[in-house]
Write a structure and sequence with these properties.
The complex is a heterodimer of chains A (143) and B (117). Chain A has 143 residues and is an alpha+beta fold. Chain A has one domain: Heat Shock Protein 90, CATH 3.30.565.10. Chain A is built from four helices and five strands. A five-stranded antiparallel β-sheet of chain A has the order 1-2-3-5-4. The N and C termini of chain A lie far apart (33 Å). Chain B is of the alpha/beta class and 117 residues long. Chain B has a single domain, classed as STAS domain (Transcription Regulator spoIIAA, 2-Layer Sandwich), CATH 3.30.750. Chain B contains five helices and six strands. In chain B, strands 1, 2, 3, 4, 5 and 6 form a six-stranded mixed β-sheet that branches. Chain B is globular. The chains are: A alpha+beta (143), B alpha/beta (117). At the A-B interface, helix 1, helix 2, helix 3 and helix 4 of A face helix 2, helix 3 and helix 4 of B.
Chain lengths: 143, 117
């Protein structure tokens, strides 16, 4: 039997359909617990993954159901890395504008909340363009 | 089991919606339709009993946000009760606990409205 990959990781590839979100978030939550996160942190990671995958399905792929989204989870000694890869429209870091929650409460509107939740619940988020597509990279460190 | 079930009942003129399961981009239209049905029927005081809600993403929060002005302009409100810890954390993180009235129990929420409906 071959040795496990370094760092240990696994991948899930789903069609670009929201019906699979529950499957992805359930996996992310359980993987977070395997990585050593507590219940509350695992729940936050699963929310961040939901939001990131939803962004890919709804925005990068414009809701088209016949594409693929790849979710890779890497278990580092003191952190969990989440890589969400796709071939849709890239999300560029300079396009990401986080709403100010205080202003949001004063002037309610739709939109932007998902990015805000991701930024609050993860330690680092980056948007990368790779040779074969685009990637949302998130990391959560074990405290 | 379905990702989301929504029970609806009325108590003393207050519509109580009890979502069970997950509100995300897949189920949000069902949740939004349940809220909109109440508003279209002229029922503007809505209590979301979240005791069975395991999870809500920004899509669900947007659905609530999209109706809050309408119900308040008509003298009503959208209130929340019995939020599970992780759901409360989402609302709190975004400052929504300042925007919406949040109660520990359905009874407390209904009591706060005594005489106001």
């Amino acid at each position: 039997m071959r040795n496990p990959p370094e760092p240990e990781s696994f991948r899930l590839v789903i069609p670009s359909q929201t019906r699979y979100l529950n499957l992805v978030t359930g996996m992310a939550k359980r993987a977070s617990m395997v990585a050593g996160m507590d219940d509350a942190t695992s729940a936050k990671i699963s929310i961040a993954v939901d939001e990131a995958v939803t962004n890919v399905i709804v925005h990068a792929y414009s809701g088209e159901a016949d594409h693929l989204v790849e979710i890779e989870l890497r278990f580092l000694p003191q952190a969990l890395e989440v890589h969400i890869l796709h071939q849709g429209r890239p999300i560029r870091e300079n396009e990401v504008v986080l709403p100010d929650p205080r202003e949001y409460v004063k002037h309610p509107r739709k939109g932007g909340l998902g990015l805000l939740l991701m930024s609050r619940f993860m330690d680092e988020i980056r948007y990368l363009e790779t040779g074969g597509g685009s990637e949302c990279y998130m990391i959560k460190r074990v405290v | 089991m379905a990702d989301l079930l929504i029970q609806v009942h009325e108590v003393d003129g207050v519509v109580v919606l009890r979502p069970e399961g997950f509100i995300n981009a897949h189920t949000v239209r069902q949740f939004e339709a349940a809220l909109e049905a109440q508003v279209l029927a002229g029922r503007y005081t809505i209590l979301l009993d979240c005791r069975l809600l395991n999870y809500i993403s920004s899509a669900g929060l947007g659905a609530i946000m999209g109706l809050i002005e309408t119900v308040r302009e008509n003298g009503g409100d959208i209130m929340l009760c019995q939020l599970q810890k992780n759901v409360h954390e989402i609302f709190d993180t975004l400052g929504f606990t300042e925007l919406y009235r949040v109660f520990a129990t359905e009874e407390e929420a209904l009591k706060s409205l005594n005489g106001a409906i």
